[in-house]
Amino acid sequence: MEEIWLALEIGNSRLHWALFIGKKLYSAWDTHYLAESVIQQLAKCQTLDHLLLAISPPHQKISRENTSSSPSSPPPLLVASVVPSQTAIWQTYPNTRVITLDQVSLKGVYPTLGIDRALALWGAGKTWGFPMLVIDAGTALTFTAADANECLIGGAILPGLGLQFTTLGQQTGQLPLVEMQGFPSLPPRFALNTTEAIQSGVIYTILAGIKDFIEAWWKLFPDGKIAIKGGDRTLLLNYLQALYPEITAYLIMEANLIFLGMQKIVKLL
């Protein structure tokens, strides 16, 4: 029977999970952070079914027909984390392996490169080919790129959509806190009320920045590929489609880039 293992990406806002059977990504889901007491209880789960029920969202059922003969001991857990305090808590779970930057075979990385960025770039490049640019539309909006020799050429980090709206609402005296769910379509560019003015300012400048980075990337690597991930990926892709359809035709949208990266290196650990 193929080995069953769990992958956990600890992000700035949520936990991102994946269940692998051998090399196959069987299921992926998100949860909120778990309390340390809950994590300690996970190690006592007698079967994989019980463990999955404990870490799955209540509304999501994970099909487990292929796991019925799984061993009763807790499966291996591979962790990639950008939150050190959470990393320490999860190391109380037995059979945990924390992935570090030196285990990703990208060339030319610098010591403080986030493991999430490195794994996403490695997963995308190894799946669709290098040169590769990864755009992560999460809490932070990041750009991370490597050339045809699998060598990091660099990237950029800026506040993501939600963080920009939250900062304006919390750090100013009179501006309202704008909720992202309220505008699935593009706002007016030149707004006549404060809420839409905030929406316009944040959204159009982020979209212009993404377009600028993509065009700069293609000047460096005309055949370079681009993949986009992160919680805001669908919203941003819809916005980009409305403004720049000639760009979005070339974008690869894949939520599980980090898990693809973990999958590529798991046999090396």
Explain this structure.
The chain is an alpha/beta fold and 269 residues long. It is built from 9 helices and 10 strands. It has helices at 36-42, 48-55, 84-90, 115-128, 161-171, 194-220, 233-243, 245-248, 257-265, and strands at residues 4-10, 15-21, 24-31, 77-81, 96-98, 132-137, 140-146, 152-159, 225-229, 251-253. α4 (115-128) packs across α9 (257-265) and α5 (161-171) runs antiparallel to α6 (194-220). The longest helix has 27 residues, at 194-220. The two termini are 20 Å apart. The mean pLDDT is 88.
* Helix and strand sequence: EEEHHEHEHEEEHHEHHEH
Mean pLDDT: 88
Helix content: 25-40%
Strand content: 15-25%
The shape is globular
How are the strands ordered across the major sheet?
A: 3-2-1-4-5
- Radius of gyration over alpha carbons? 20 Å
The helix tally amounts to: 9
The CA-CA distance between the termini, in Å, is 20 Å
Topology at a glance:
Blueprint: E1 4-10, E2 15-21, E3 24-31, H1 36-42, H2 48-55, E4 77-81, H3 84-90, E5 96-98, H4 115-128, E6 132-137, E7 140-146, E8 152-159, H5 161-171, H6 194-220, E9 225-229, H7 233-243, H8 245-248, E10 251-253, H9 257-265
Parallel strand pairs: 1-4, 4-5, 6-9, 9-10
Antiparallel strand pairs: 1-2, 2-3, 6-7, 7-8
